[in-house]
Design brief:
328 residues, alpha/beta, TIM Barrel, six-stranded parallel β-sheet, three-stranded parallel β-sheet, 11 helices
Length: 328
């Protein structure tokens, strides 16, 4: 059977858990995350209106309602990173929460909105934004983290089927642990030399990753679902195609080139009945939410045109996996 062209959006929903080791919570950063909290319902409204299916890879700690609930759910086994600065538990021990119902680390209302919106998949980004390639951590610690993430989601009415590794630290040794937890799909990095590994890269790899967002350093490698279907072992690895980089003031040329890159790639994937996977973090919209939403509107409108012209389908990671399993 011939697969249709498929468009997937996956979002790494983290708030401050996604950058605690590099970003403080001064007044400016608090406003950054408040803007993020305000813009997420706008994203959901746009996705619902245009029938865009999206996977929200959510840090499990965001399910907590308050500090007391976070303490109650703290796993007995936490990661033993050689670098304690990358541990969410160590960060909280050193800095504490902003308040009892800390809006930068707890987001149950936003999660409920995602669950209530049409065609939105609630996935996991691990429980504690767990770095799977950091030295010192163990498979058992990762297993404990994933089981906690799945249990917390289950208690809130969601069965986790998809996972995105934090910082895209893809660890193939952990795929069997994901499978045992019921996870059927994970997001992997683009199959291009400068995306491997996604973190801890050389200057040259970082340079090419940044430049490729604007200029065609290397043609995007078309991904076809029939090729993913060759691997029948779960979880299936769904490769990302492009990171959406947020709108920036004073960079009109870069903003234009970036959008042209994304829209052209979407069109090529739709024409060739390929798989195109766009991702970003909701907090990327925190500095310029209105302008970023304008760009997202362009992306969504482009998808709608491609759907009408080529039959381009919007599917979540889980829906894509089920399509592959049914027809592979």
């Amino acid at each position: 059977m011939e697969f249709p062209g498929v468009f997937t959006i996956s979002l790494d929903f983290e708030l401050h858990w996604g950058c605690f080791e590099t970003m403080s919570l001064d007044d400016q950063q608090q406003q950054y995350f408040r803007n993020t909290i305000d813009v997420i319902p706008q994203m959901l409204k746009l996705f619902s209106e245009k029938n865009v299916h999206v996977t929200w890879a959510t840090v499990g700690m965001l399910f907590m309602r308050n500090k007391s609930e976070w303490m109650h759910n703290k796993p007995a086994l936490v990661p033993s990173f050689d670098n304690p600065k990358v541990s969410a538990y160590n960060w909280i021990e050193e800095h504490g929460f902003y308040s009892e119902e800390d809006p930068f680390h707890f987001a149950p209302q936003l999660i409920q909105q995602i669950q209530s919106a049409a065609h939105q998949e609630l996935a996991t980004h691990t429980y504690a934004h767990y770095f799977c390639l950091e030295k010192g951590q163990t498979p058992q610690q990762f297993k404990t983290d994933i089981e906690k993430a799945c249990a917390v989601a289950k208690a809130n009415g969601t069965t986790i089927r998809s996972l995105v590794f934090p910082r895209n630290q893809f660890n193939p040794e952990y795929l069997s642990i994901c499978a045992d937890a019921g996870i059927t799909s994970i997001r992997s990095s683009p199959d291009i030399w400068y995306w491997s590994p996604a973190t801890g890269s050389t200057f040259m790899k970082k340079f090419f990753r940044a430049g490729d967002a604007y200029l065609k350093f290397q043609p995007i490698k078309m991904v076809y679902l029939k090729d993913i279907a060759v691997n029948k072992q779960l979880p299936l690895c769904l490769p990302a195609s492009r990171l959406y980089r947020p709108w920036k003031s004073g960079q009109p040329l870069q903003n234009k080139l970036k959008m042209r890159r994304i829209l052209n790639e979407m069109t090529e994937a739709a024409r060739k009945k390929a798989y195109y996977h766009l991702w970003w973090h909701p907090h990327n919209f925190g500095n310029n939410p209105r302008e970023c939403m304008d760009e997202l509107q362009q992306i969504v409108e482009n998808y709608c045109q491609l759907r009408n012209k080529y039959g381009f389908e919007s599917l979540t990671m889980e829906e894509t996996t089920q399509l592959i399993l049914r027809n592979g």
